[in-house]
Recover the amino acids of this structure.
């Protein structure tokens, strides 16, 4: 099964003076949705283009199921990818766009109608691409990726331009594809969406790997739980808690405490005689973790 | 790790048969790309319009020439004050004008290849569009994801372009054939289709269509920018002939005094093409027709080869 995954190893791309991707290594497992995250300009798209043999790496390799993409004779039946929502001729209909891709891949032209139905574009099949909304263009891109019913899907920012209903549709589609055992690698900077969608995450910044692993692990390990506490006598409470905790005061007068759990804070409050008005356990979210991990690395290069 | 048997593949996965001849799939895809946009019929209409316009002019000219040749009442009268050599030249020209067979053959050659001038420009531009559209509309990404072996894609396009050249040639030739046959039938003359000079004109007309389509394709592969390639090919085609004659004539007159300078003007594609399609010498120092054909082929292959090498290495982003 490990052979079905994507393995990126030491991938590097040098543009003039910029290391767009810098010795990047990570793996993507089958049967899971892997979120590929990074600030703008982190090298996400360049990495995906190198995986798909569109951009030549300066160094390193990328394989899918153990093979380089350039060595696939008939890739569409094994790998489906969308990189640009705008990649179709303005004057060609959605159906004809898919049919010409079918021709190139040796897939019956009738498959175009199947995938159009899968992405809900059947009513717009005979409309020209220039009349498509951004969301419809994304759906057409996904339809193209699904033509060969591939085991591996690589999608660059597929949620861009989708409305809330479309985003939910996309989430459910990608989850169901992963549940069928496929490998799904999806880049995005919509972090709240990623938190709902992805099982694993790969976070890069400035072309380098920052963190990789299962979503829950990374969020918990990096963030750690914090407590939000409100009391009229904060100083007495903090004196009782001692120096083992770190405390920040929020603008609305609450305390944000890291390093103690709920029972410990409750016991300390009782000893200090401090009335508790609010005690909330705040789980860290992906957004906080992401900003923490990529802090200072998201500058324009 | 686990000894359990792997679960059978999820049901409901479609079975997608393999269709198409492997080598021709990409050609078919390219033909569909061409026929599913407006370029197809816009170029078709332009080609028909130019052919019709050229037929109008060519048949009018032929009609004049032939009635002139049929005028047996006219006699040769040399002008006053001419040298004997000039008189001989004028007499030969007079004889040619009144040689009905020659005039019919010349007329047939013109009529049956009507629309060549703009037809060649159109197939060249089509050759440019077939490759530059991929970058203009960012479909190169989708195309090369479907077929990562880029040389195959380029050859698929190449074959489609040549096929297109043949189709455009065929349509223009059928139209001019019908008009030409009616024209000669009306005059009660042979259509001269059995004559080698006429057959040669039609055959070389086809070769010119293929070579100019190829040259446009090579230019598009090389330059990639659509507007840049279109402008370059129009300049090469429209300004190339007059410009090259002017430049080589200037060099011959002022810099290098040798007739080989004029002969070497064949190195310019437009002159090479004219040298190739013209049965007689285009000008006294002109190179033989096959040199013109080879030069055209050389330019197309060179542009295409550089383009293929660039395409193989180029980052698509």
């Amino acid at each position: 099964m490990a052979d079905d995954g994507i393995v990126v190893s030491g991938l590097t791309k040098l543009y003039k003076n910029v290391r767009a991707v810098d010795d990047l290594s990570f793996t993507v497992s089958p049967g899971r949705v892997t979120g590929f995250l990074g600030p703008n300009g982190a090298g996400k798209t360049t990495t995906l283009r190198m995986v798909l043999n569109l951009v030549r790496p300066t160094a390193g390799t990328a394989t899918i199921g153990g093979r380089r993409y350039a060595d696939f004779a008939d890739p569409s039946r094994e790998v489906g990818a969308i990189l640009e929502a705008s990649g179709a001729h303005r004057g060609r209909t959605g159906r004809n766009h898919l049919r010409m891709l079918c021709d190139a891949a040796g897939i019956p032209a009738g498959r175009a109608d199947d995938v159009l139905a899968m992405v809900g574009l059947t009513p717009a099949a005979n409309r020209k691409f220039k009349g498509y909304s951004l969301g419809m263009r994304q759906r057409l891109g996904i339809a193209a990726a699904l033509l060969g019913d591939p085991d591996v899907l690589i999608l660059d920012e597929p949620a861009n331009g989708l409305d809330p209903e479309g985003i939910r549709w996309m989430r459910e589609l990608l989850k169901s594809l992963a549940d069928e055992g496929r490998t799904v690698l999806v880049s995005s900077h919509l972090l709240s969406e990623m938190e709902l969608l992805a099982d694993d995450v790969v976070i890069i910044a400035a072309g380098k790997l920052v963190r990789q692993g299962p979503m829950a692990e990374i969020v918990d390990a990096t963030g750690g739980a914090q407590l939000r506490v409100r009391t009229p006598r904060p100083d007495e409470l903090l004196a009782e808690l001692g120096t083992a905790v770190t405390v920040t005061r929020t603008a609305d007068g609450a305390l944000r405490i890291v390093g103690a759990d709920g029972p410990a804070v409750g016991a300390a409050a009782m000893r200090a005689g401090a009335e508790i008005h609010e005690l909330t356990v705040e789980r860290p979210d992906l957004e906080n973790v992401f900003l923490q991990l990529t802090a200072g690395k998201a500058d324009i290069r | 790790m686990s000894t359990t048997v792997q679960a059978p593949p999820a049901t409901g996965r479609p079975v997608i048969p393999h269709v198409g001849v492997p080598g021709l799939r990409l050609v078919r895809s390219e033909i569909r790309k061409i026929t599913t946009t407006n370029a197809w019929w816009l170029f078709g209409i332009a080609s028909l319009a130019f052919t019709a316009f050229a037929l109008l002019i060519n048949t009018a000219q032929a009609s004049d020439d032939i009635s002139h040749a049929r005028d047996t009442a006219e006699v040769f009268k040399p002008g006053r004050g001419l040298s004997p050599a000039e008189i001989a030249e004028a007499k030969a020209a007079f004889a040619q004008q009144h040689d009905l067979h020659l005039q019919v053959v010349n007329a047939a050659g013109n009529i049956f290849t009507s629309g060549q001038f703009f037809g060649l420009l159109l197939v060249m531009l089509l050759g440019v569009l077939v490759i530059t559209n991929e970058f203009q509309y960012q479909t190169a990404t989708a195309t090369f994801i479907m077929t990562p072996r880029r040389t195959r894609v380029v050859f698929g396009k190449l074959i489609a372009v040549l096929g297109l050249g043949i189709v455009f040639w065929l349509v223009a030739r059928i139209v001019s054939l019908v008009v030409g046959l009616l024209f000669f039938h009306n005059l009660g003359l042979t259509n001269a289709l059995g004559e080698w000079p006429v057959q040669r004109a039609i055959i070389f007309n086809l070769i010119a269509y293929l070579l100019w389509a190829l040259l446009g394709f090579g230019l598009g592969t090389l330059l990639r920018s659509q507007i840049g390639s279109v402008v370059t090919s129009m300049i090469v085609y429209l300004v190339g002939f007059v410009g090259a004659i002017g430049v080589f004539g200037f060099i011959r007159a002022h810099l290098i005094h040798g007739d080989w300078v004029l002969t070497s003007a064949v190195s310019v594609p437009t002159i090479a093409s004219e040298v190739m399609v013209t049965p007689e010498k285009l000008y006294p120092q002109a190179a033989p027709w096959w040199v013109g054909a080879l030069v055209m082929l050389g330019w197309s292959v060179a542009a295409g080869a550089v383009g293929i090498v660039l395409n193989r290495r180029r980052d698509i982003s």
In short: The first strand of chain A starts at residue 6 and ends at 15.
